[in-house]
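[STRUCTURE TOKENS]
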Amino acid sequence: MEHNHDRFIFAPVNNKPLNNMETMAKYTVKEITWPEKVFFTKRARIAFDKLPAFFGQSYGEIYGTVQKLGIKATEPPCAIYYSIDEVKKETDLAAAVPVQGPVQDMKAFKKVIIPKSKVLATTHYGSYENMRPAYAELEKYLTTHGYKKELMIEEYLSDPAVEKDPGKWKTNIYFVVK
């Protein structure tokens, strides 16, 4: 999937009614095994309302740098969530671009390698601000099957700069588990 990465913007759409896809969403959780994945990342602790600007700038910088160096981005952009603080309304996360390895370290970005892992996965269709039911289903599966969550990863399969209808945005959500 081609993305115009220097225009990749993550902006919540406020005051819009949910479309049928979002109101009637049913989430299926799958257990999958991920192969080792290599990402170039830019990590920060960010307030929720600053996420769109952080993602837009970070993805532009990462994609621009890897393209200049001739490194191949292998999959759509992701966000790796290390922690989320609902009280402070902030998160410790990394804008992440999967790349084809092996690759050298870069000064500007941290290389993160996620080893072959068991992953719980579901897919959300709709705006980013309406993802709670998808996360709730993953959390429920996690609890009922006795897994421990290591990381949360969102994989953005839609480019909001291209697809203007948030109801059509597709996001894979992964919990890396033990």
